[in-house]
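Intended use. Records like the one below are meant for learning the mapping from a protein sequence to its folded structure. Do not use them to infer anything beyond what is encoded.
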Amino acid sequence: MSLPAEPRSVRVDGARLAYVDLGDPAAEPVVLVHGYPANHRAWRHQIPALAEHHRVLALDWLGWGASERRTDLRFDYDTEVARLGRALDALGIGDCNLFGHDYGGFLALGFTQRHPGRARRLAILNSRAHRTFVPAWYTVFSLVGLLGRSRLANASAKVLPLAGINHAALRKPLRDGVFDRATLRDYLGWMRDPEGARWVLHFFSQYRVPARADLAAGLGGIQCPTAIVWGTGDDYLRTTIAEELAAGIPRAELTLIPGGGHFVMEKAPAEVLAALRNLLARERTSARISENE
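Structure written out for the chain above:
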């Protein structure tokens, strides 16, 4: 089983959201949400194997990959978490196994807390989750946000080489073979267009970097089986985030992958797949959890 050459698409908030749909349509759904600056291909090593027994829907989150980039839409956290629910609705998915990496894990955590009845099982992989980035990257993302909110945003989008800047930041994983040049071009190529760069600045203008006390306070309310899968040696996020998640979520199991780094699904694909399969084999709670809406 291999990934389709072209993703499908559905309308969410009036914009085109691209996604890959693989496996038996009648099987239990697994929804995969990628992180920055990737798309559904970040899960390329796991999708075919997971699709052997599940229906796998791997999203290009709105604004990323082949999905539409609209600067007339909001991308603050509350809107994005609610948008995830609207995306599931558009896909015809009621409840699902929800797996998120990086930004995807950030959204999945908030979504599971707000809509517990829709998450059968939860996986969070190398994500800021309830915390935030190491100081250097906290500063970088904060400055990009300030630029996005400034009067210089439109002018900067025309001249700022965002694709090149991101490419330079990802030289280490590229050199280490975490992904190849073609995959990196797929992740970043659209940023070379001024409209793509403008959307990135629009996104960061509404993105907030500080830790989320509300998400931290809600960890104990997550009752579904949960996997915290973490590559150590992450240049952006401390392993203590994973340890706090595992300690705070009642049914969480922690898998640390030595040297897996931030892009853990791509650097340690077999270990990640094993952890996700283990999660999918765990029994759901028998008690029905009501929505906190």
